[in-house]
Write a structure and sequence with these properties.
Layout lengths: L8 H4 L12 H7 L4 H11 L2 H8 L6 H12 L1 E2 L14 E3 L2 E3 L3 E3 L5 H4 L3 H12 L3 E3 L7 H7 L5 E5 L5 H13 L4 E5 L9 H6 L9 H7 L3 H9 L15 H8 L9 H7 L4 E6 L2 H9 L4 E4 L13 H12 L4 E4 L6 H9 L4 E4 L1 H33 L12 E2 L2
Parallel strand pairs: 4-11, 5-6, 6-7, 7-8, 8-9, 9-10, 10-11
Antiparallel strand pairs: 1-12, 2-3
Helix pairs in contact: 2-18, 3-18, 7-8, 7-18, 15-16, 17-18
InterPro entries: Aldolase_TIM, Alpha-hydoxy_acid_DH_FMN, FMN-dep_DH, FMN_HAD, FMN_hydac_DH_AS
Protein name: Alpha-hydroxy-acid oxidizing enzyme
Organism: Cellulomonas chitinilytica
């Protein structure tokens, strides 16, 4: 039997290392978030249900989003051992220019609804982190105000083609005048997808004061106080709207657009052109041959056509078919730095993240976005080192196996 004795204070003292008390609730909440999923949980607690569901949800039965995340979770990473990985370089190029990390912040609509700091916060984090940020046509901060908030960031402008083509031409001219580097045309929204969470929540822009929302305000007072005491929540690219998001998309966006209309686009925009929303190998080849500088394999985060192809699954075939005619990026379902590394190993030139940083924004404003970027950066570096690679160019299909 072991001989027992009471420990002496001199023996206990070295073990007494209390965690520093963090008085600021936001800092405490973000420090406790070790993963993007942790930020998602914090975002759910911090925002009204309709706002969280708008960000978190997808179309119909949400099968497209579920399949994308399932594929990332179930792929196999294959490390190579006994390599010097004391220095890991995450730098890559996007549109021929350096990016400090192999991902950019994707365009998201109505960002000030998630947190009153909105697009300005995201752009400032992108500037500090050395990655690009794409401002959405459906953003809630103007093209010019985002440019002022982050003058040295690599800023792209995401365009939906409206039935009123002159409105699109005006937006492109404003983006060019404000110093935006590239245009990102989203092509997977000829009509709005059926986002059932929004319909069931009665979600509208701006949120309406109904009995349901007033009751919700009692459990999310900080969010409502910020909404009601900061500048009104309006669209940066149109005057106002008092319906659902789906109704807005169906009213404004042009379902007649074809690939021939890229000539009209090029007449108004002479900078780099990114086409986002590619979901087949054939369309990837068509768009690359039509002059896109980069294509984004994307099913809109699962928010348009349910049961759409999983972008990551398409990636190797698209890379082979495009054969260097355009950069190939991928989004949808990315929730970790390991997901980003896996996409690069399968041939992506870069990735785009949307929900990941929005969860951070909802959890803690600009500091939350920065925490999301910090988490992803740490995970990318660690995954690369554990795979035995020191730079992005060393990643290849030998490092990943799809189920």
């Amino acid at each position: 039997m072991a001989n027992r004795q009471l420990p002496k204070w001199s023996e206990l003292k070295p073990l007494m290392r209390p965690k520093p008390i963090q008085l600021n609730a936001t800092d405490r909440r973000l420090a406790d978030a070790l993963t993007i999923e942790d930020l998602r949980s914090a975002a759910r607690r911090r925002t009204p249900r309709s706002v969280f569901d708008y960000t978190d949800g997808a179309a119909e039965a949400e099968i497209s989003l579920s399949r994308a995340r399932h594929l990332f979770r179930n792929l196999e990473l294959r490390p190579s051992i006994l390599h010097d990985v004391s220095g890991v370089d995450t730098t890559t190029t996007m549109l021929g220019k350096p990016a400090a990390l192999p991902f950019s912040f994707a365009p998201t609509g109505f960002t000030r609804m998630m947190h009153h700091e909105g697009e300005r916060a995201v752009a400032r984090v992108a500037e500090r982190r050395g990655i690009p940020y794409a401002l959405s046509t459906m953003g809630t901060t103007s093209i010019e105000d985002v440019a002022k908030a982050a003058p040295d960031a690599r800023k792209w402008f995401q365009l939906y083609v409206w039935k009123d083509r002159s409105a699109g031409e005006d937006l492109m001219a404003r983006a060019k005048a404000a110093g935006y580097e590239a245009l990102q045309l989203t092509v997977d929204v000829p009509v709005a997808g059926a986002r059932l969470r929004d319909a069931r929540n009665g979600f509208a822009i701006p949120p309406a004061l109904t009995v349901k929302t007033v009751l919700d305000a009692a459990t999310h007072p900080a969010w409502w106080m910020n909404l009601l005491t900061t500048e009104p929540l309006t669209f940066a690219s149109l005057s106002e709207w008092h319906g659902t998001v789906g109704e807005l998309l169906d009213k404004l966006f042009d379902p007649t657009m074809t690939i021939a209309d890229l000539e009209w686009l090029r007449a108004s925009w002479d900078g780099p052109l990114v086409i986002k929303g590619i979901q087949t190998v054939e369309d990837a080849v068509r768009v690359a041959k039509a002059g896109a500088d980069a294509i984004v394999l994307s099913n809109h985060g699962g928010r348009q056509l349910d049961r759409a192809p999983v972008p990551l699954r398409l990636l190797p075939d698209v890379v082979e078919a495009v054969d260097g005619d355009a950069e190939v990026w991928v989004d949808t379902g990315i929730m970790s730095g390991a997901d980003i590394v896996a996409a690069l190993a399968l041939g992506a030139d870069a990735t785009m993240v949307g929900r990941a940083y929005l969860y951070g924004l909802m959890a803690g404003g600009e500091r939350g976005v920065d925490r999301a970027a910090e988490i992803l950066t740490r995970e990318v570096r660690r995954t690369m080192a554990l795979l035995g690679v020191t730079n992005v160019d060393e990643l290849g299909p030998q490092h990943v196996r799809l189920p």
